[in-house]
Amino acid sequence: MKIDNERNSLRRTVGIGAPMPARPRARAAVAPRPLQEVRLTELGHSFQENMAPLATKVLDASSLVRFQTNVGGLASPPPPSGTPGNGLPPPPASQADAFANLQELAADAEPLPDLDIDQADVDAVNDQLEIARAATEAGDYATALAAYEALGLPVEDTANLTDEELATLVLLGLAEVDVDNGTYEFDDYDATYQELQGLALNAQLMVAMANAGVTPSENPPTQAEAQLYMESLVAAGASTEELFAAASAFVEGTVVLYNHAGMTGEPAYGADTPRYVLMDGDQRHEFADEADALAMAKELDVHYVKSESTLPDSWDDAYSLDTSGARHIGDCENTLYLMNQLLSYAGFEDVGSAMISGGDDVIAHMVGIYRDGEDYYVTSNADFARVNSSTTNVTNASIEKAVKAAAVDVYGTSFGLTFTYAKQPSGAAGDPGVESMRRAQEYATLGYEEELL
């Protein structure tokens, strides 16, 4: 799917009371930290883990509550004997190129007296990257992750960087600080930053799986290993939010959105067998032969659509694109496919999919809707939210509010966008969620509106 997010550099103001410019992003912007908490004059002297607890963020009080990802908080079985991560497979070969690029940037780093960053801090970045590289190559993700954490990685919140995160990004040339104005500039769409972040996220995932008693044989893990991982978290008593967070972390640890990897073309996965679809009121008709569809369309005086989907419909299909660093390139389609599988393994019901589209197909995005008892959830890429309702029961209207909030989160607005929904049919062939994804595309073309509830 095309994602037409803006690519301008972020200018994050960290002064007291300073405004934060709005920008369409995959995560909602949050308020900047006060200046005294950032301590720009002390940036280079800690390089220690300084992760503040992640709070629940209300995006739309009438429709949706956001939960931030925190894999470290998952309830999981005791880690297996030995060092977690030892002997696990390395990421794709492209990780070597990513490390070479990052280490070249680190080698060029120099002390920054204005930020109180001295040669010891420059050496720390070089040393920790080398430790991470060697450990990753050996499949020792626990050691690699410790090295990343010493550098403040993975970054938790690009709008509110910690001292360690900002110092690392500055030394690698990925962020600039204006000491006089108390601001920093940072482009989280930068492909080099995304490779650095991806290496850390990938290591974090591999360690989390090993800690849960599931040792992946491949990187990314196989579908069977992903299923075992999610089922082990359920057995360990993980909460709904923790299960969604684990699925989100799995996706973020194995997939980078194509426009974050410097790719401009629209991703496409293996083509499905064409089919022909038309609607007679609420009655769906599907044909394998176009002549049959044409005949019925003439009889009913309606349009039909030739559906030639390139949606991912298998685990291998979802990971069929090239790699960037430690992760496979993807878009909203393969992230939704993966979320569908992971959440189904955790026992969530796949309710359906929503297609978000705009003028001339400039904007096209897909989100998933899930049920857990009386609660409903929406996912968008690797983000997730619970649907709230002003009435006792969740309604189609409250689901649409949550989906529109997801659109605002990605594009900055829901104005002028079209929202098309499709149910996941009971007993549908294929992997969970695939059929509703394809139907949402078909219904968007036909202009048909299907209610989920």
- Give the oligomer, counting copies of the same chain as homo and different chains as hetero: single chain
Average pLDDT reading: 81
Question: Which percent range fits the helix content?
Answer: 25-40%
Rounded to the nearest angstrom, the radius of gyration is: 23 Å
- Structural class category: alpha+beta
β-strand amount: 15-25%
- Give the spatial strand order of the biggest sheet: 2-3-15-14-13-12-16
Number of discrete helical segments? 13
Contiguous low-pLDDT stretches (5 residues minimum) are 1-86
Q: In whole angstroms, how far apart are the ends?
A: 26 Å
Total DSSP E strands: 16
Give the overall shape: elongated
Report the biggest beta sheet as strand number plus sense, adding barrel if it closes: 7 strands, antiparallel
Order of helices and strands: EHEEHHHHEEHHHEEEHEHEEHEEEEHEH
Secondary structure layout:
Layout: E1 10-13, H1 35-38, E2 57-60, E3 64-66, H2 94-107, H3 119-137, H4 141-150, H5 163-171, E4 175-178, E5 183-186, H6 191-211, H7 223-235, H8 240-254, E6 255-257, E7 275-280, E8 283-287, H9 290-300, E9 304-307, H10 315-318, E10 323-324, E11 327-330, H11 332-345, E12 349-357, E13 364-372, E14 375-380, E15 383-387, H12 396-411, E16 418-423, H13 434-446
Parallel strand pairs: 6-11
Antiparallel strand pairs: 1-5, 2-3, 3-15, 4-5, 7-8, 7-9, 10-11, 12-13, 12-16, 13-14, 14-15
Helix pairs in contact: 2-3, 2-6, 3-4, 4-6, 6-8, 7-11, 8-11
